[in-house]
Sequence to fold (138 residues):
Amino acid sequence: MFSIGKLSKRTNVKVVTIRYYERMGLMTEPDRNEGNQRVYDREALERLSFIKHARDLGLSIEIIRELIVLNETPDMPCEEAHKIANAHLEEIEKRIAHLKTLKKELMRITTHCHADHIGACYVIKSLSDHGLCGSEHD
Fold:
């Protein structure tokens, strides 16, 4: 059995975040001891570790909720979990491509700037006039 503080330390999840997950329904409300303190079992530790790892991978609360439901039916085929993971992977790949475009544009505008004062700064002008950008990046 774990207090909320010990659960927090074991999982590296802040106490307020644990309470948030309880309010969101990702974790069940724990039993309480005689002093009315939350008491967590091994299952809660495993659930919180699952949630933390999923969040570290960038999964949303809604997706984590779906995965928890899937996890509660262990005999079910894992096709749905694969679909969820692959959809998230595709989204990550899109974000990476977008970030690469942003990086390229920022490198371009910073290397084109040779001014010594803001009035002639190409960075400032490029931010003010999207037409000066070398590519689309919204």
Remarks:
- The longest strand covers residues 31-32.
- The chain has two domains: 1-76, 78-138.
